[in-house]
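If your schedule permits, I should be very grateful for your opinion on a structural question. Please examine both parts with care and let me know of anything in them that strikes you as inconsistent. The record follows directly beneath this note:
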Amino acid sequence: MPRFAANLSMMFNEVPFLDRFQAASDAGYKAAEFLFPYEFSPELLHSKARAAGIEIILFNMPPGNWAAGERGITCIPGREAKFRDGVDKALTYALHLGTPRLHAMAGIVPTGVDLAACRKTLIENLGYAAERLAEHNITLLLEAINTRDMPGFVVSTQSDSHSICEDVGAPNLKMQMDLYHMQVMEGDLAIKLKKYASMCGHIQIAGCPERHEPDTGEVRYEYLYRLVDDIGYSGWLGCEYRPAGKTSDGLGWLRAMTSSLAN
């Protein structure tokens, strides 16, 4: 049966970030993911997660200058040293927090930079990161992000993601398959999940097109929840959605789905 992890960057925004671990636990979650932990010390995060009984399953490597619009620097030529510094920083946090997966945001192609050069840089940087993480049995993830939300993002389809993973050739590099992004860009969710099952390292969910609770919008998630079992996926489903209102008021889908899947 699928296991659901709260995304603390998007959910439970009614309380400060450090209080969201307990809020997620109170709502029934056993695991959490989030975008970036670097505002807080790993010791403090570990303390909060442990007190709440929450496993930290995933976060992102440093993305570059987020405030200036950067969404990852993995593909950007000339930023290799900064990327490697970010790998070291993320690894320090992951080891302290016991986090088994790290996501390297591929990035937006800078104006005037050749796409082929960005792809080459992306492959080389992912190879470096995968090798570093493999020493500690940590999985590196590559996510395709839709170009409606992030125009110019260098990896936008599952085919793109799979091709790059194949070119890198690292056994611990997997695809992060966000079903919201996938629906926006290409649809055909069930077929894509089946096709890339062996390379799937993590799945995320949200309603589409508004990115609210997964029981809203055009995707029939009840079918997909059963499918992920059928394809042998045993990981977490990250709830990376923006609640339409107060987070707790929108969790009826979780209670209903957990009950339905148990029967």
About this structure: The beta strands are 3-7, 31-33, 55-60, 101-103, 139-143, 173-178, 200-205, 236-239. The first helix runs from residue 20 to 26. The mean pLDDT is 96. The longest strand covers residues 55-60.
